[in-house]
């Protein structure tokens, strides 16, 4: 299997799963946990929040780039703090969904804020 096909398959499967937004497994961070990190007064917790959101966005953007697909497009001048603000606002507006996987919710927030 060539790498472009593999990347496209990954993006298609991920986008398909995001529509369903499964509950977080025992091994994944929930939206509630991410929101707790992001709103913590502790620098270490905020660092976890920022790293999680930036890592989720970067990983997904790499997959979209390889597949030549677009699910969201973050402008170059957007800083990590803005990504955090967008994600936190999404989590606050969707409290019932916060039991779902934080990565899925982060990608939904970014898609809503930065559509292609």
Structure commentary:
- With 116 residues, the protein is mostly helical.
- It has one domain (3-113): 10k-s Protein, Hypothetical Protein A, Chain A.
- The chain contains five helices and no strands.
- Helix 2 (31-39) crosses helix 5 (102-113) and helix 3 (43-67) crosses helix 4.
- The chain is globular and about 35 Å long.
- The relative contact order is 0.22.
- Residues 1-17 have low confidence and may be disordered.
- Domains (count): 1
Distance between the termini: 28 Å
Q: How many E strands?
A: 0
The amount of helix comes to: 55-70%
Percent of sequence in beta strands: under 5%
Q: Give the overall form.
A: globular
User: What is the average per-residue confidence, as pLDDT, rounded to a whole number?
Assistant: 83
Question: Remind me, CATH topology?
Answer: 10k-s Protein, Hypothetical Protein A, Chain A
CATH architecture: Orthogonal Bundle
CATH class: Mainly Alpha
Q: What is the gyration radius calculated from CA atoms?
A: 14 Å
Structural class: mainly alpha
Report the total helices: 5
The run of helices and strands is: HHHHH
List low-pLDDT spans. Answer: 1-17
- Major beta sheet, specifics? none
């Amino acid at each position: 299997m060539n790498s472009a096909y593999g990347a496209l398959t990954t993006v298609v499967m991920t986008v398909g799963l995001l529509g369903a937004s499964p509950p977080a497994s025992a091994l994944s961070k929930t939206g509630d946990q991410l929101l707790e990190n992001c709103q913590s007064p502790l620098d270490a917790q905020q660092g976890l929040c920022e790293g999680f959101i930036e890592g989720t966005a970067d990983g997904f953007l790499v997959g979209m780039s390889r597949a030549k697909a677009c699910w969201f497009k973050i402008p170059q001048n957007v800083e990590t703090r803005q990504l955090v603000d967008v994600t936190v606002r999404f989590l606050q507006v969707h409290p019932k969904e916060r039991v779902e996987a934080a990565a899925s919710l982060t990608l939904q927030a970014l898609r809503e804020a930065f559509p292609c």
